[in-house]
Design brief:
With 320 residues, the protein is an alpha/beta fold. The chain has helices at residues 18-34, 55-65, 80-91, 111-120, 138-153, 170-176, 186-193, 216-230, 233-262, 270-302; strands at residues 5-11, 43-48, 69-74, 97-100, 125-130, 162-169, 197-202, 309-313. The protein has an 8-stranded mixed beta sheet with strand order 7-5-6-4-1-2-3-8, with helices on both faces. α9 runs antiparallel to α10.
Length: 320
Amino acid sequence: MTPTLYLVIPCYNEEQVLPVTSKLFLEKIMGLISSGKIADTSRVCFVNDGSRDKTWEIITGLCKEDDHFAGISLAHNRGHQNALICGLMEVSSKCDITISMDCDGQDDINAIDAMVDEYLNGSEIVFGVRSDRSTDTWFKRTTAQSYYKFLKFMGVDIIPDHADYRLMSSRALKALAGYKEVNVFLRGIIPQIGFKTSMVYYSRAERMAGSTHYPLRKMLALALDGITSFSIKPLRMITTLGGIIAFLSFVGIIYIIIGAIIGNTAEGWASMTILLCFLSGVQMISLGIIGEYIGKIYMETKGRPRYYVDESVNLPEDKE
């Protein structure tokens, strides 16, 4: 049976790049349909993440021009990860496979063919992995490599140089639906699902139009989510650090007592000030790390919905 494929593409203020990349997405879908690899019921599904520009108007216009386009609009901006999981969950019952990718044209669209081939060969999840980072600046390349190494060190099961370009079968999507956390970090969740997986390597291009919506601030926030959502190692490091400091303090007390007994003491504020500043800094950092975890617990216990769909266009009935 020929599978139905949905491309799931989150969009936020993409009015500049959407008219360019939408043609490429449609061309790729139609090519795969012509080759007999996917069914004619396949679609390109854009997820509008509460854009403030004309992104949704462009999406609805595309849907009127061709039934192979579909659109979902969130009631409010919920962030890339929530928009992506919204799209995946909303179409999971309407297709056999999904491929998620960015709207900016940086993900090599030709890698879709290899992903579909891997699915036809039995893979339930296919990760798109960058083969190189030649298009990145030195700073971004260095920080990205350090980020993946740090996550691995923290015990997070993550695939280096993989973002959110991936294929998932309907079976894998059903498993993903069982993850109910509010703080969504799909790069860490999906490798935990299991099933048969494979990788497709590709080269990432420059953004075709517009500007990036993932500045350093958002990248750091995503990195923090990745660590605090999947690892308690920072908390254990605090415990270890506290034990080391307590031991050194105990040694210092013994040293001071012995010095006082033998009369070999020297008064001074510099050493005491340095020690107090050091301990105060350690305490504040420790409280900050603990606070991050408490904040995550607070948000999870509220059980608030991750998104609300405002409207949708060209989405068919669920598959039987």
